[in-house]
Design a protein that fits this description.
Structural class: mainly alpha
Shape: globular
Largest sheet: none
Number of helices: 10
Number of domains: 2
Strand content: under 5%
């Protein structure tokens, strides 16, 4: 199946004649399709971008198309297919109930975590977020940050295979710093929320 998808994408590239940065026109559409039905892994687009555009530009291009796809699927599901999706996927989502609760409770931070690691398909993250009480603006920025984290991490992994002679030390060090900053911001935010909740309980008692 993977080989068939790769061949189909190669055919589309040859058919459209797109090359260089213009390839983003095609991969954005493919990313939206992937985010809806997940018929091929998102890493396919990452490898494609890196192969055609190089490491740095390829990572940025993948971040862009991934963020656009995440936002488009979220809004379409939220405003057009919310009821249908809830009926169609309700039982399947039971296996991800704990993550739905995490999105409801932690909001942006749960989305960043889920988009960083391949715990569940990208389309389910968008669908579940559309069913949650999370604000659209919160979903947008958390998906952008989470997609960046995902691309950064898997860019490091895939680049070591595609470009074995490339020095990835700065890419790895910068990603570690990025993760540390996120963890620090989350800790501060969570502590403030916890403190406010505790203060309200103290005042009410």
């Amino acid at each position: 199946m993977t080989n068939l998808i790769d061949q189909a994408i190669d055919w589309l590239i040859n058919f459209t004649g797109l090359e260089g940065l213009s390839i983003i026109l095609l991969t954005t559409i493919l990313a939206i399709i992937q985010s809806f039905i997940g018929i091929f892994p998102f890493a396919t687009l990452l490898v494609l971008h890196i192969s055609i555009l190089g490491l740095k530009v390829g990572l940025m291009a993948t971040w862009f198309v991934g963020s656009v796809a995440a936002v488009v699927v979220f809004f379409i599901c939220k405003y057009f297919f919310r009821d249908w999706f809830n009926r169609k996927w309700g039982k399947r989502l039971e296996r991800y109930e704990k993550w739905q609760q995490s999105i409801d409770k932690y909001g942006a931070w749960a989305i960043i975590f889920l988009r960083t690691l391949p715990i569940m398909p990208n389309n389910l993250i968008a669908f579940m977020s559309a069913l949650s009480p999370i604000k659209s603006s919160t979903y947008i920025w958390s998906s952008i940050v989470g997609t960046l984290s995902h691309i950064w991490l898997f860019g490091i992994i895939s680049s070591s295979v595609i470009f074995p002679d490339t020095d990835l030390r700065m890419l790895i060090i910068s990603y570690v710093i990025f993760c540390m900053v996120l963890i620090m911001i989350f800790s501060i935010s969570y502590y403030k929320t916890y403190k406010m909740s505790r203060d309200r309980i103290t005042k009410s008692s």
